[in-house]
Every structure is written in structure tokens, then in C-alpha cells.
Amino acid sequence: MSLKVLIAPLLVAAASLTACGQGTPATPDAAKSPASASPTAGAGAGASRRPGAIRSLRPVAKITSACALLTAAELKTLLGGASSRTAITATPKISDGDHECIYGTKTAKPFALIVTTSSTRTFTPQKSINAIANAANVKTRRVPGIGSAAVFYITDGGIGLIAAGKKSYGQTRTVIFSAPKVVPGRKFAEVARLVISRI
């Protein structure tokens, strides 16, 4: 099953605020999140010049690319593989106005980042995250300290997903990151915290 097939219903649900039931439990370590905004907090202006460094970026006024918000090198660093020789690529895509970035190798693309925006005043970050949680059809876990609201869960197909939302530049902006469930929950939180700080 493709990642788009897994995530598309969530985006539709978030946009329409429809609700579904919940099912099986998510991993308990999803709520364990680091205290800093990134594992390399304190990296200065030269951080982007070092391989695997996490760049210091201010929130962007206009979202133009999910890949620009999280490079393949940054994802590799956050997931603990900065010293690996495996080449990871980031492939940008725009689908229905949402910005996507698919990360992986030539043979597998197991990681995805989606960034959505809504200028509808009544569509709050909490409503966005609630809609995503309700549409999950599995037990979800709220994750404190990431944006205005965040949720984590693992699908029946073994894909972990974290979604976080916040208000920025007059919009509700939502970040959705997915990866195989073998990735520790704290790593999902680190990725979401970094990207939400940039939007």
C-alpha cells in the first residue's frame, strides 16, 4: 500500500473534519519527546555547511516545498544515520495544494513529510489534529510540546505517523511525518518538532 493511499484519507478528513472510530493501542514511547527543538540545538549560522548538520531556520511566511523544510541530510541526522554511507534523496511533490517530500533510496522510500495550510479562520490546529486522530481508526496518543496540538499513532499496516499543527502567518499549518514503526517514537517527535518550528 502506498504512503499516499495511507495519508490521503487523513488529509481529506482534516479538511472536512469528519470523524471515525478508534481501535488498537499505539506505542507508548511516542510521547517521549526531547526537551530541545532539535538534537543539535545551538548549531549556529554555519550549521548548514557541515554534513548532517541541522540548519537554524526562522518560520517561513509562505510554504513552497516540504523538502526545503527538512532536507534528506537533516532527516538522516535526526534518525541517527548521519555517518551512514547510504544515499538518501528527497523528492518533492505537490498534491491538491499540499506540499509533500518523499525520502529514501533508489529502491525504497519509507519516509514522508506532508505540510498543509488552511486560511479558514475556524479551522484551528486543534481541529486539524483532532480530525486526523479521529480518522486514524486506531488508538492515538497526544504528544505534548509540539506546536499547538500533536498526535502519534501506528497504523495496522505498520506505519508510524505523527501530525502536529500550529497557527502561523494567519494560517493553520499542519505537519505530517510518517515512517516504518521500527523508528522510535522520540524520533518522530524530533522530526515534527523541528519542522513545526520552521513553519
TrEMBL record:
Residues 1-21 form the signal peptide. Keywords: Signal. Residues 25-50 are annotated as: Disordered. This is DUF3558 domain-containing protein. It comes from Actinomadura nitritigenes.
